[in-house]
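Write out this protein's structure.
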Amino acid sequence: MLLPYVTLEERAYMFDISPTQNSYIERVNGTYRRAVLDAYIFRNLDEAKSITEKWMKYYNTERPHVSLGNMTPQEYTAMQS
């Protein structure tokens, strides 16, 4: 995924994160790498974007999360309502 151009001031702010935040980022990066980047050979950037969008939707809405008691975010939200 390509990141937009950021200024030096914005970069300084971006990297001022806690070790806990970094571990979450690294976990998502590793999961993304295994599920998408290592699993497909992309023919072009549009194909990579399309597969990434599908994976993000699955990861954020349909996949069970350990932190939510192995429920999907949708199930967890419905239970909280």
